[in-house]
């Protein structure tokens, strides 16, 4: 159906209140939006890797998930869901009666970019009919804000502290979305919670109802790790898009299309300066990040023009 915020808001709430995620956490609107993209008649089997989301939403015997939920270890959520999907297909092949079911794996950037990458790559390469959602907050937030391969360059974390010798993390973040493009799966998307949730909602519906393996990389700001006021969640998301630090795009059958091109691209300093994790950055460091961001954006523009 065509996206209409009023109509979509009437869809069943599959992720309930009462969870213990922090105020201002980006994971909450991400998961609520993904699940709302399901058709009301469809059941979902969801598995989440050990993460902020998992420990805050599934404290036995309580759960915020209305659909079937499996807690996976840090490294194997993609394997868990691909196994459930394979069992479902086996039941269908035997002629057993089963409800229409969608399969969703969820991991943070630590459990996706790093520890769970092998299982994710395997599931995508095999082509399981499932959606993998990475909610990317740029560090291992659940265990003390340690750096991950998704942590931006120069960001301060507990394992990449900024000081007089080392200015935060020294390496650029891994480009996982384009790595997933290299798996030649039917649908890949990059998005974030923004404005009226149109972009994320439409991409979630495409990802869920595209046959085969799908992957979504979704920026999910973290007020504790990024050090911004909790009420500024949506502002941080908008700045990420307008500075092209986090471009929105989708890759359908190998063709990349930008979902949004800013009319007046803002400098990356607008995004960096409101965050405490970047407060130590010098003008030279900011210029370095600007250069990297511009190069990445120009590459995506070229892909976009090739479609």
Could you describe the 3D structure shown?
It is a single chain. The mean pLDDT is 96. A hairpin with a 2-residue loop joins strand 7 (249-252) and strand 8 (255-258). The two termini are 25 Å apart. It contains twelve helices and eight strands. Strands 2-1-3-4-6-5-7-8 form an eight-stranded mixed β-sheet, sandwiched between helices. With 307 residues, the chain is an alpha/beta fold.
| Rg, alpha carbons | 19 Å
Query: Whole-Å distance between the termini?
Result: 25 Å
What is the number of strand segments?
Answer: 8
Shape: globular
* Number of H/I helices: 12
The helix-and-strand class reads alpha/beta
Mean pLDDT across every amino acid position: 96
Order of helices and strands: HHEHEHEHHEHEHEHHEEHH
Give the neighbour order of strands across the main sheet. Answer: 2-1-3-4-6-5-7-8
Amount of beta strand: 5-15%
> Spans of 5+ residues with little confidence (pLDDT < 50)?
none
Proportion in helices:
25-40%
The main pleated sheet reads as: 8 strands, mixed
């Amino acid at each position: 159906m065509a996206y209409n915020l009023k109509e979509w808001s009437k869809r069943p709430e599959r992720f309930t209140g009462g969870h213990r995620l922090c105020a201002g956490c980006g994971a909450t609107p991400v998961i609520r939006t993904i699940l709302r993209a399901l058709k009301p008649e469809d059941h979902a089997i969801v598995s989440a890797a050990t993460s902020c989301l998992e420990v805050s939403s599934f404290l036995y015997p309580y759960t915020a998930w209305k659909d079937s939920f499996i807690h996976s270890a840090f490294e194997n959520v993609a394997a868990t869901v691909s196994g459930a999907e394979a069992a479902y297909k086996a039941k269908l092949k035997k002629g057993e009666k089963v409800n229409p079911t969608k399969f969703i794996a969820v991991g943070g950037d630590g459990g996706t970019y790093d520890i769970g990458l092998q299982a994710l790559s395997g599931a995508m390469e095999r082509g399981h009919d499932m959606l993998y959602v990475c909610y990317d907050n740029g560090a291992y937030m659940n265990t003390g804000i340690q750096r991950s391969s998704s942590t931006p360059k120069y960001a301060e974390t507990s394992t990449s502290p900024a000081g007089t010798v080392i200015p935060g993390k020294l390496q650029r973040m891994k480009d996982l979305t384009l790595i997933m493009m290299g798996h030649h799966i039917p649908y890949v998307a990059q998005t974030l919670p923004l404005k009226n949730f149109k972009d994320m909602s439409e991409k979630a519906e495409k990802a869920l109802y595209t046959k085969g393996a799908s992957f979504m990389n979704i920026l999910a700001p973290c007020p504790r790790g990024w050090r911004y006021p909790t009420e500024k969640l949506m502002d941080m998301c908008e700045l990420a898009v307008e500075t092209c630090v986090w471009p929105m795009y989708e890759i359908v059958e190998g063709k990349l299309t930008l979902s949004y091109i800013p009319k007046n691209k803002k400098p990356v300093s607008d995004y960096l300066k409101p965050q405490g994790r970047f407060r130590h950055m010098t003008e030279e460091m900011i210029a370095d990040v600007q250069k990297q961001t511009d190069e990445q954006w120009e590459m995506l523009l070229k892909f976009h023009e090739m479609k």
